[in-house]
Target: Orotidine 5'-phosphate decarboxylase
Amino acid sequence: MEYPVIIALDFPSGAEVFHFLRKFPDEPLFVKVGMELFYREGPAIVQQIKGMGHSIFLDLKLHDIPNTVGRAMKGIARLGVDLVTVHAAGGTEMMKAALAGLDQGTGAGQKRPKCVAVTQLTSTSEWQMQKEQLVLSTLEQSVYHYAKLAKQSGLDGVISSVHEAPIIRHLGEEFLIITPGIRLENDDVRDQKRVATPKQARQSGASAIVVGRSITESHDPYETFLKIKQQWELIGV
Ligand SMILES: O=c1ccn([C@@H]2O[C@H](COP(=O)(O)O)[C@@H](O)[C@H]2O)c(=O)[nH]1
Model:
């Protein structure tokens, strides 16, 4: 599977998603369906977007007891999505249950969705982590610790910021490092704390980038997508 620029479809309704997607030529994209859209539109939105030929990252960030997460993942696998998330803070037992659920829900001849764990959200600063989570290590140590737990649990990779990607890469070339918190040079960072450009992401060894508002709120989303893709592919930069 190719992991290009993943577009976060953070919209409040399916109608707004389809209006947005009409601004793109008829070519397959890799899109992310998150909580806002999924909780409003339900599983039907996944089927509709899949029906348009796009690959889907269903980013529901599951974090619950192992039994609940395992059963939820069984249902999620039946949607035929490509990539899903859990929180590494749920622990190794929960992450293993997530994978077992995905295996159970994946039909014969289908590919199991890849499963990656959120380490520390890109909206979390080191100061916040230490004060609010009472984690006394550095942010990089915490992210790397969670990445190792995800790997031990058999997961396919993690979500982290670009800044931690080089150290996570020590866990292997195949281990996926999906990085949100992506901004072009003069973009407003908004609620994100650990941000980087597409070019920095590629140079840091990230496997893929996730971009939301820089594209969805752009006056020309397709042109911005192409600009980001060009930086990500290190073309002419
Ligand atoms: O640590 C994380 C995990 C997930 N996200 C998601 O990525 C996008 C980023 O949106 P922007 O508008 O580009 O900031 C969003 O859907 C988040 O839920 C993340 O940002 N950080």
